[in-house]
Design goal:
Layout lengths: L13 H13 L2 H8 L3 H15 L4 E3 L4 E3 L1 H28 L4 E8 H6 L1 H11 L3 E8 L4 H7 L4 E4 L8 E16 L10 E3 H4 L3 E5 L6 H11 L4 E6 L2 H9 L4 E5 H4 L7 E7 L4 E9 L6 H14 L2
Parallel strand pairs: 3-4, 3-5, 7-11, 8-9, 8-10
Antiparallel strand pairs: 1-2, 5-12, 6-10, 6-11, 6-12
Length: 306
């Protein structure tokens, strides 16, 4: 019969194993009782209960001595291994519960993986150096499918439409901005620019069906304008590169514009209407985040709070 199928009443308890092993090691019930912070009668009861469960005598008793039997020597090895395994399990679970060790598997689109995740991963590693973070990049249209497949613990990104099976914790709202070279596009003074002011200028944006394109089209309709789209690309970084070379003004999220390596680019927030995309931690509704995954989520929340 497999051990996990035996009734619990037939198996030794942790208290019995500890009492037996301590008596076996120190050689007397009184010394073992002192070490275990128990009374001598309590230790004696534990020993007799263990012998009853095992069906044999572990110690030969006399008025002057307590001598381990041959079976006791063999049982001590099992007891040591069993208690070590239990202590190892408890220690490992404490580490997992405190987020000190483990693994975090997350999904992100290429844009999020290139802009938001590296600084968050750096901050997380400083707090949890023993936790391994694995990032799986995915195209925007495959983001939800990957989360539903459970191949990752959670995702960092935007869900364009509610999905009943997914939960979302938004930690930041990424405003849409327009970016261009100062010598190619005359930007109005100030920090913002309206969609009507942008309409006559050539722009580059992502293709229909990609990421922020739906929000761009909705904003243009709300402003009553027809954008002059010169180029449509798949990657926001490509849009930035085109803007940097004077081909058109790029419409991108502010987090992407902040990563631009070209100092001669100017940025204006698009308003009337102001548009942003919520970015959050997304995971399956029927699954809980591990302590390590929750710790990573807290880092994201902390970095973008307010």
């Amino acid at each position: 019969m497999a051990i996990h199928k035996k009734p619990l009443s037939a198996l030794p308890s942790v208290r019995q194993l500890r009492a037996f092993l301590t008596v076996y090691q120190v050689g007397s019930v009184s010394a073992a009782a002192e070490q275990l912070a128990l009374t001598q009668p309590a230790v004696t009861v534990l020993l007799r209960e263990l012998e009853a469960r095992l069906g044999l005598r572990l110690f030969d008793r006399s008025t002057r001595a307590l001598r381990p039997t041959e079976a006791a020597a063999e049982a001590a090895g099992y007891a040591q291994r069993a208690l070590a395994e239990l202590e190892g399990m408890a220690s490992r679970m404490r580490e997992l519960a405190q987020g000190r060790t483990g693994r975090v598997r997350l999904a992100a689109t290429a844009t999020v993986a290139a802009t938001l995740l590296p600084p968050a991963m750096q901050a997380f590693r400083a707090l949890h150096p023993e936790v391994k973070v694995e990032v799986e990049e995915v195209a925007p249209e495959g983001f939800v499918e990957l989360l539903l497949s459970e191949r990752v613990d959670f995702g960092v990104g935007t869900i364009e439409a509610p999905v009943a099976a997914l939960r979302e914790e938004v930690f930041m709202r990424d405003a849409l901005v327009v970016v261009a070279r100062a010598d190619t596009v005359a930007f109005p003074a100030g920090a913002s620019m309206t969609w009507k002011q942008l309409a006559p200028r050539p722009v580059v944006t992502v293709k229909p069906g990609y990421g922020i394109r739906r929000r761009i089209d909705e904003a243009a309709r709300a402003a009553g304008v027809q954008l002059r789209i010169e180029h449509e690309v798949s990657l926001l970084t490509t849009a930035l590169a085109m803007a940097a070379h004077g081909l058109a003004a790029a419409i991108v999220p502010a987090s992407v514009a902040a990563q631009a390596a070209w100092p001669h680019l100017l940025t204006r927030r698009l308003v009337r209407p102001a548009v942003d995309r919520p970015i959050g931690i997304v995971w399956k509704r029927d699954r809980s985040l591990s302590p390590a995954a929750r710790a990573f989520a807290e880092v994201l929340h902390a970095r973008h709070r307010g």
